[in-house]
Amino acid sequence: QGATVNTYLLEKVRLVDRHANERNYHIFYELLAGIRSNARDKDRLLLESYTPHHFKLTSSPSNTYRRRDAVSDETTYHNMRHAMSAIRMDQEQQLDVMEVVSSLLHLSNITFLSHSQSDACTLDTDNHHLPCALELLGVSLLHLQDALTTHSIQIGNELLIKSLSLERCTKALEALIKATYAALFEYLVTQINTCIKPPPNTTPVAFIGVLDIFGFESFQTNSFEQLCINYCNESLQQQFNRYVFQLEQADYEREGIEWSFIDFPDNQNVLDLIERKHVGILSLLDEQCMLPSCTDRSFANAMYNTCVVGNENGNQSFFLFSHAGSMPAPSLSPSSVSSHSTNESLKSCADVIFLADTRQRARGLFGIQHYAGPVEYDTRGFLEKNKDELPKEATALLASSDNRFLRHLGTLMSNKTTDYELNTMDRRTSRSPTMDRRTALSRSPSASSSIMRVSVGGQFSSQLRLLRSRIDVTRPHYIRCLKPNDDLIPDCFEPAVVADQLRYGGILEAIRVSRIGYSQRYAHVDFVRRYRILAQEELRESGRTCKIKSSEREQCKILVEAIGCALWNMEDRPPSMVDVQPCSIPASTFTKRRNSSRNASRNATSWIKNKPMQSTHSINATPSSTELQKLGLQMGKTKVFLRQSTFDILERKRNTYISSAATLINATVRMYLCRLAYYHALYAEYEALEAQEQYERSIIGGDAMEMIRKFEVVDETMTEWKTVAEWKATGEDREFKWMMVDGRWVRNHDGCTAAVG
User: Fold this and answer.
1) How far apart are CA 629 and CA 618, in angstroms?
2) 312 three-class SS
3) What is the percent of the chain with per-residue pLDDT over 70, rounded to a whole number?
4) Which of 518, 540, 565, 735 shows the greatest Cβ crowding within 10 Å of its Cβ?
5) How far is the C-alpha of 13 from the C-alpha of 7, rounded, in Å?
6) In 343-380, which positions are buried (b, 16+ CB within 10 angstroms) versus exposed (e)?
């Protein structure tokens, strides 16, 4: 029926401050590439001969101009223009948007001149980007200079104007660029929602939400933006963990197994550290922003005083938040935390969620142990980024513009500020019925020198709570996107890069949560099919004792009891079973089995490599459901649930059985092949002898061959058969007598001849 788009934490700081090898928002590069072939738009936007390296918003020391994913900026620019036409934006509206983008490019190149006589600054009129910015913004040089170089303060009926230093002028320019871009972004989102919103008087029945969230971030230097992004990921990770827990709980209850002993981890202490009122980091930051003359250093000191407990030597200081948000004394010895490596300290101490050692405190740094790992933050710029103040001179500048579209953007900024002021005043005056809305508006901070907007941290925290409340009433599905390498090239898989993404995306944390309970589950038929090798004799015995074939559930029950009995009598069990002593349960706690349980249990325990059983009674009995629960093995209505440690044991024993069986099969097959080769060789020898016999028969005839066979003698010193011709040639056909010579019978032809003579 329709849709709406919501935004969370637009990273405006990327406009003026980017990391190495990081591009600015794509629109700037797409605009410069897309208008090359359109001379008319190029003249109107005053971008005749400019490229990305000409502007501060698009240039970088690493010359990161082109996209590394082989996507053409020119192509995406034309696709974007088609998309703007699809949401019913005419060509004039589209060019209005492009004019604002072009004005921001030229504004980023504006420079200031500092006067040595005073701290006052003026715009550099020799800068050739200044006329382009003035024309695109539709303002005069005087108005722009007053908005960026002066600061007005209303005291009673008197208006004081103060000149700004060069640093503050630069900050005012950056604030104008960020506020204008944010207003433009909000305008486009509004245009999209106007086009795709549901028809009027439509009652929504169901909805599908798509959330594109930023991943966990940890850079060499992490600032306020990374804290907000990681805070969001931390909160959504908690929601995901609880969702996994709910699914686990529902599955356990549906299967009718015991699960109350499972303790799922919760990162509420980290969220309390960031968002809890009065003592959380964001609350302390908001308090510092409201106090006069506060700096990033004062915020850091306030955070250290609230969140840190130091040791006697002052070398280490860390804080442990409880779930109730109290501040107990740390149960971890500070000496166990190394002052030389913050990350290693946080990794080695899982309960430490906030750390600030001497080195960090001297530099205004602090560390937080997130679910994805430790991150060190730099407090420089925290107050300014959290305030996100827009000087009222900048709003007045846009309101006085000759450009109708820019005046509309200025109105959007003013209305957003006024709405927040009224909502804030409504909350403050809700307890006082005597103060009406008009009185609250008269007391609003808009009369001050700067327009006080909702703090970025407070706004983001409110949006995050609303987002979580929406997710809690839906059925979420998660899609994790991983890139195989940082160079965005095909056929290149870097395991370290993927492992970091799995960690930062919460996948490893989700796996850890899942492994705490019964991480392995099998249907009854699958469990029997996989692990029946561990109790074959028992299953075979049960089949012989039953008149009818056992059902899958009965076979599974027999197998679970046999495995449980074997695990119960196992001595080298993992740490998760340390409270289960082999054969230490009295006989009254066991339930008797059928008559075949004696031999079956012995067969089931034969695969356990341990010492002899201490008691024969426990071998002949079945552990109850309580003992099976301690062993990490439970049988549900349709599934068998295994703890990870129990699953590892069964897999190891199963692999041992399979390996032994494979070895036996291999040996048997090799023996068969050797015998087969021997029989082939023997048969070949027989065939050779038969062929030789047939050949001799064909030479001398059949009758002669029969006569020769009668007188054929094989001498014991001979190693081969002799043919008839060879036998006659030796003279052995003469008459002879046997005689004993040296204990050996030999032929005596001479003696026979002499006797005959």
Assistant:
1) 17
2) coil
3) 72
4) 565
5) 16
6) bebbeebeebbbbbbeebbeebbbbbbbbbebbbbbbb
What does the pLDDT read at residue 242? Answer: 83
| Residue that the structure tokens 């590439």 belong to | 33
Cα–Cα dist 51/49, whole Å: 7
Q: What is the largest CA-CA distance in the chain?
A: 170
Q: Which uninterrupted H or E stretch holds 306? A: helix 296-307
What b-and-e string marks burial along 419-433, b requiring 16 or more CB atoms within 10 Å of the CB? ebbeebbeeebeeee
Summarised one tens digit per residue, pLDDT across range 64-110 is 667 777 788 999 999 999 999 999 999 999 999 999 999 999 999 99
Per the rule left: phi > 0, alpha: psi between -120 and 50, beta: everything else, 538 is alpha
The amino acid at residue 163 is S
727 pLDDT band (50/70/90 cuts)? low
Pairing of strands 520-523, 450-451: unpaired
Of residues 239, 309, 325, the one with CA closest to residue 277: 325
Q: Where does the pLDDT of residue 701 fall: very low under 50, low under 70, confident under 90, or very high at 90 and above?
A: low
Identity of the residue numbered 232: C
Q: Is 523 helix (H, G, I), strand (E, B) or coil?
A: strand
First to last CA, the chain: 135
d(CA 697, CA 716): 25
Structure tokens at 96: 């209005």
pLDDT digits (tens, 9 = 90+) for 438-484: 443 344 444 444 444 578 888 888 888 988 888 888 888 888 888 89
Tokens of 489: 């090239």
Distance between CA atoms of residues 342 and 356, nearest Å: 8
β-strand pairing of 309-310 with 317-319: antiparallel
Q: Can you list the positions of beta strands (E) in 609-694?
A: 633-635, 639-642
DSSP secondary structure letter of residue 622 = B
pLDDT band for position 304 (50/70/90)? Answer: very high
Closest CA to 536 of 664, 665, 667, 654: 654
More confident residue, 584 or 172: 172
Residues 675 and 670: their CA atoms lie apart, in Å, by 9
Please state the rounded mean pLDDT for residues 1-16.
82
Compute the residue count for the chain: 757
- Residue 367 · residue 318 · CB < 8 Å: no
Instruction: Name which of 283, 264, 263, 259 is nearest 272 in CA terms.
Output: 283
d(CA 475, CA 511): 20
Task: Tell me the one-letter amino acid at 219.
Answer: F
Distance (Å, whole) CA 99 – CA 92 = 10
Burial class (CB in 10 A: 0-12, 13-18, 19+), 141: middle
Q: What is the strand order of the sheet 309-310 is part of?
A: 309-310, 317-319, 354-355, 365-370, 373-378
- In angstroms, the CA 689 to CA 683 distance is 10
DSSP reduced 3-state for 65 = coil
Helix (H) or strand (E) holding 319: strand 317-319
> Which burial class, exposed, middle or buried, applies to 106 when counting CB atoms under 10 A from its CB (0-12, 13-18, 19+)?
buried
Q: Which of 257, 184, 157, 248 is nearest to 27 (CA)?
A: 184
Within 10 angstroms of residue 698's Cβ, the number of other Cβ atoms is 10
Query: What is the model's pTM?
Result: 0.66
Cα(172)–Cα(384) distance, integer angstroms: 11
Residue 364: predicted pLDDT: 93
Q: Which among 7, 468, 466, 471 is positioned nearest to 207, based on CA atoms?
A: 471
User: Is pLDDT above 90 for 564?
Assistant: no
Amino acid at 709: R
The tokens describing 24, both together, are 């600015």
Q: Is the pLDDT of residue 170 over 70?
A: yes
